[in-house]
Amino acid sequence: MASIPLLRLSLRPTATVTTATHHRDQCRNSPILFRPLKSATTALFPVIAMKSKTPRKPRIVAMSSSSTTPATDRLIASVGYFLPFLNGLRYGRFLFAQYPKLYVLFEPLLPLLSLYKSVPYGSFVPFFALYLGVVRNPSFSPYVRFNAMQALVLDVLLVVPSVFQQIFTPGQAGLGFKVMVMIHNVVFLSAVACFLYSWVSTILGRTPYLPFIADAARRQL
């Protein structure tokens, strides 16, 4: 009878070990526990794992337009802006008289300006040649046609101050003369700034957008 309790005591650790081993095997066979961290995260958060596995779209870097615009288109587009520039030089006579050093900067262009004025109807022939030969010519690219039309719109706007001057005919002194001088100076500086910006942009193959003028040019195409 004394051997029965000893037998029971000897069996208890074995049962405990067996139970612990069985529990450990169940944990190992669990679909989540005792897995690698990445697999457990995938099982617990399938939506996040799906988003992380989604391949990222390659980033598209916009190329500069100078690499795609042909050199001939750049040259033709830049030449068109000389028309409003030459017509805008006449508004700088007051600045030239006030600042002689400024006149020296534009002195190399005087032969070109003299040749331009010596041609009969010198302002109309280049205008219609640029409009009919370039803007309305579908053989040219949209880049060239847009810049040609923008140059023509700018040239038309430069005629407006001279028309008002002929209508009101201000004298050589007084408030009207001061207003005329101020308008001439503003128009001249604006014409030079537009020319430099547009000319450099077209040489680099970029599209110059002059405020309000670009919208008007686009509507005419």
UniProtKB/TrEMBL annotation:
It is a multi-pass membrane protein. The keyword Membrane applies. InterPro entries: Tic20. The keyword Cell wall biogenesis/degradation does not apply. GO terms for cellular component: chloroplast inner membrane. It is found in: Plastid, Chloroplast inner membrane; Plastid, Chloroplast membrane. Pfam families: TIC20. Keywords: Chloroplast, Membrane, Plastid, Plastid inner membrane, Transmembrane, Transmembrane helix. Belongs to the Tic20 family. Involved in protein precursor import into chloroplasts. This is Protein TIC 20. It comes from Opuntia streptacantha.
